Amino acid sequence: MMLQCPRAGVRNRLAEGSFVRIKQQNNYPPDRDSLSGFFYFAKLSAMNFWQKLKKPIMAIAPMANVTDAAFRRMFAECGAPDVFWTEFVSVEGLLSRGRERLLPDLWFSENEHPIVAQIFGGKPEQFEEVGALIRELKFDGVDINMGCPDTGVEKSGGGAALINTPGVAKQIIRALKKGVGDMPVSVKTRIGYSKNEIAEWIPSLLEEGLAALTVHLRTRKEMSDVPAHWDLAPGIVEFRNRLAPQTILLGNGDIYTLSDAHARVKESGFDGVMIGRGIFGNPWFFSGRTPDVRERLMTMIKHTELFEEIYKSNLPKKEGALKNFDVMKKHFKAYVSGWDNAKELRVKLMETENASHVRNIIEKFLASSK
Ligand SMILES: Cc1cc2nc3c(=O)[nH]c(=O)nc-3n(C[C@H](O)[C@H](O)[C@H](O)COP(=O)(O)O)c2cc1C
């Protein structure tokens, strides 16, 4: 059964056709040979999409094992943000023999433009080559993660560890810029490592002429455990206005509704916001619609079937699964909440192993609650 998401104002770019044909229609995975000659150079010269966006800019946050192609495709249908982001991908991994396994994290469809690829790593010499790859994959922009607190990521010298090595962070930006040509380079970071370091860290990044800078308004030490420090936003805007007025500034942290998003932009002076946990289970976030339970559940089925189709999650790994079906379970939790008997349904969904199990359970639930 196909579910039509109703129109959601100007932001909504309704996808055409069947999800079942997604690969043929949208070139999964992107065909690099098709990018050649005049078209390639025409595309490069049409860059910096950031400057063309209407403000306030609303972006979906990069989130590992959340913002994959299936998840983003649901937003493209139900109410698209102004900018999509991929999950982050290791630069080191993209240069290794394991690259083939990472490339699915960089798949996207034509309905997800503008889309930014996020990468992480700590070795400047690896960024130029990866930048050239991102450019070939036809992304609209590339973003460097300088805020992830994961110990594995930090061990590589990347993520939040770069806040402690601003010289390396600069070299990374410069190397990436060489690799991507005209494609806009952005950074997503935090306000400091163990304490507020805005006064040194933010200018050091702004000096590099970034197309955009996203600031998650917490320190690395704070993880996501304290309320985001939105009171620090005006100071960041002041640095931007003085040092790099052309750099687009996005704020991030604790935005759970569209009206929160607009209020934060207004108070802060940022050009826009990036939303993370607030969009879980809610592909209608940017449309401002609140669908009923039936529509939520039917959309969840569609999301699950799309995930399975793209990542073959119904197969064992050695037979070609690209992502584990369990990735969907955090989405189930988010879609199935906010009504009386939701918990019972959630518990059943936690036991599922593929999309047809999910469809059976939901169809039975909806039939019994008529
Ligand atoms: C499950 C999960 C995965 C995340 N993965 C990434 C990532 O790959 N790259 C990144 O820059 N931030 C990542 N983040 C951080 C978010 O992008 C965002 O900065 C953080 O959740 C704060 O925003 P929020 O309060 O709106 O959720 C992740 C967060 C979550 C919850």
Structure description:
The protein has two domains: 273 residues, Aldolase class I (TIM Barrel); 76 residues, no CATH class. 38% of the residues lie in helices and 13% in strands. β6, α10 and β7 form a beta-alpha-beta unit. The protein has an eight-stranded parallel sheet with strand order 1-8-7-6-5-4-3-2. The protein is built from 15 helices and eight strands. α6 packs parallel to α8 and α9 packs parallel to α10. It is globular. It is α/β, with parallel strands linked by helices and 370 residues long. The N terminus is likely disordered.
Q: What's the domain count?
A: 2
Q: CATH superfamily name of the largest domain? A: Aldolase class I
Number of helices: 15
| N/C terminus separation | 18 Å
Bound molecules: flavin mononucleotide
CATH architect. name of the largest domain = Alpha-Beta Barrel
**Cα-atom radius of gyration:** 20 Å
The helix/strand series, from N terminus to C terminus, equals: HHEHEHHEHEHHEHEHEHEHHHH
Helix content: 25-40%
Query: What is the average per-residue confidence, as pLDDT, rounded to a whole number?
Result: 89
Low-confidence stretches: 1-45
Overall 3D shape: globular
Number of strands: 8
CATH top level assignment of the largest domain: Alpha Beta
Q: What does the main sheet amount to?
A: 8 strands, parallel
Largest beta sheet: what is the strand line-up?
1-8-7-6-5-4-3-2
Beta-strand content bin: 5-15%
